[in-house]
Structures are given as C-alpha cells and as structure tokens.
Design a protein that fits this description.
Layout lengths: L19 E4 L8 H14 L3 E5 L1 H10 L8 E3 L12 H4 L4 H10 L5 E4 L3 H12 L9 E6 L6 E4 L9 H18 L6 E5 L10 H12 L5 E6 L11 E3 L2 H26 L3 H9 L1 H11 L7 E4 L4 E4 L6 H16 L2 H12 L2 H9 L24
Length: 381
Amino acid sequence: MTGTGTTVPHPGATVRPLPIAVDTMGGDHAPAEIIAGAVDASREHGVRLVLVGQAPRIRRELDRHGFMGKIPIVHADEALDMGEGALASWRKPRSSIAIACHLIKQGRASALVSAGGTAGVVATSRLRLKGQQGVMRPAIAVTLPTRPRPTILLDAGATTDVKPEGLVQYAALGTAYAQILLGLDRPTVGLLNIGAEPGKGGKLTKRAHELLAGGSHGIEFAGNVEGHDLLSGSVDVVVTDGFTGNIALKTMEGTIRTAFDEVREAMAGGAAARLGALLQRRRLQDLRDRLDPDTYGGGVLLGLNGTVVIAHGASQARAITSACELAHRLAAGRIVERIREQVALTRTSRFGRRTHADRDGAETALKEPDAAEANEPPASA
C-alpha cells in the first residue's frame, strides 16, 4: 500500500487476497476491452482474476491475447444490458454480476469489477451481498484528482435520500477507504454544504454537522466544505447525499473535459502555440494522466459484505486494468473489515437503535428504483 501519508498497520493487510471477479459482459465495449484490460492486469501487474461471463466469447478473446488457460473462467448465462435499471437484479438471477457476487459469498473471490450500468450493478450487489451489519445505506466513493493527494467523494449516486446519521456513516466509510487508498492514519473529513459556517444548509446538513462535530466516533471532522473546495485538496474525504454528489461529480467531469478541449484547440492555433505545446509536452502529459478518470479505476460501492468496483460504462482496457488494481489493493487492505471497525465507532446508543433494525442492510421501505438511486425492489416484485 502506498500513499503520501502514514501507512496504517492492520492485521493481514499484506496477505495475498482471493482472485478478483471481473464481469466481462458489462460495458459499452464488452467483452473485448474488458478482457484486454483484465489480461493486462494479470500479465503486467500480477493481479489474480476470475473472468465471469459467456465462456465461448471469453475463450476467443483470451486466445486472441495468447492468454488461454491462464485466467479461470466461470460461465454466466445472462448479462445485464447497459440500459437496464434496478429491477434487472430480480429479472436476471443468472447474470454475470449475480454470479460474480455469488463467488464472493462462496469465498472464491474477494471483489467484483464491472463496467455495467450503475443501477444494475448497485441493485444486484445489494441484493446478493447484503449490507454490512450496522450500515444503513451503501455509498459510492470516487477519487477526485486533487493535490497534493487525491480526495475521496461519497456518495456519488448510490442513495439519493439519506438521514443525518447516514452521512455520519458515510464519513466512517470514507475514512476507512482513505486509510487504505491514501495510506493515511487520520484522514480529514468535510461535509459538502452551501457555506463553511456550521449553521449553513438545510435540516440534513445542519444535523449531520452537529453529529460529526460533537460525536466520539473516530472521525477527523474538519467542518463544512463548499463546491469550490472539491478540487482544492483541503480535506481528504468529502461526504454528501447521492443526489448532490452525483451532480457535483458530473459537473466536474464536464468542466475538466471542456477545459481540455479548449487547451487542445489553443495549442493548435499557430506555430508558436504548437512549439510551446511541444516544449511542455511532458507536463501536459502528466496533467492529462492526473485528470484522466481511467487512472483511478472507477467508483467503489462501500458498505456491503464484499468489495464492488464500478468502472465507467465507456471503459476501455486501460480503465479496466486500473479497476482491477484498485479492487486488488482494497481486498489486500481488508476494506470490508476496516469499514466494519470504523462503523462500529459511530454506533453510539443513538445510532445503535437504528442500525440494529437495519443490520442486514435491508431497507424497510423502498421507493421505485431509478438510474440515480438503484434501490432494490420489494420482495413481492
């Protein structure tokens, strides 16, 4: 585990994890690009994998890469289409994502990597893996390209409706994630709000601020942060509800993409501009790599009894390789156990009464699922 902070000792953190289950059928470029990225993760980085999907197609791709017989294959009859929502988790119980989750439950895999539609991946993972004891709602954590080290943002879209106690738990999830990914002993946590003052925001953020500022929960709370702080690196973890987090993330992605397009056009504007671009080629390449989401491997669904890395739907081989490496690092760092320990610190008598009712991660009342929130349908569906 590497990082710019202090490495956190943890029992078993260096133990080689079980293989990573890769959903080869999810994504706009599946299965070719998915398998190409998996092959590179195995060949170049030594990540242990198991490929899940339609076996004949997987074998053809492995043969094309000269890698036949070097990565185990588990056949899955079905695949979730990119446009399918949360109900697909019930309609297709033999999908490649469902089979991969089953491998984790059986102890045959340590994590899942998928570039499938977020709604289907979240819903299927929640249904098959269940929530960790004490976790009210899962959250998607994403990495923001800040300096001097990356910043973790959650929730990026798993749950749009959350209670103040849920935001405290997101802070716990983000703390555990940052300890492993960034190698920090006490990562700082900020609450996304419309102002830095404690009294700013609505009922949700005001109450969450009170709980984070006054609780004995093992969280290094740094107060409110605003939208312009997201890329400043002022805190290590930023917590918010899934609705706000998803909008913030996509706004940043669009802004970065537009800025790069403008820079590219300016560099092609004339001989002097092209010469300047040539002289700054190394720095421009470093900047592009730092801001490229493919470098970070995707979002991680935290709070379940298993690790789930959700790569972008348009992911090609490089992004899948990064996702496999990320899943391997989290499994080696025992992220599920670390989250369990961190969440336990938030379970004061106030939280305990609520989390006991939701200890298996099941929701007592679910709304109709949509692409942003990917909630599980009720058992009668």
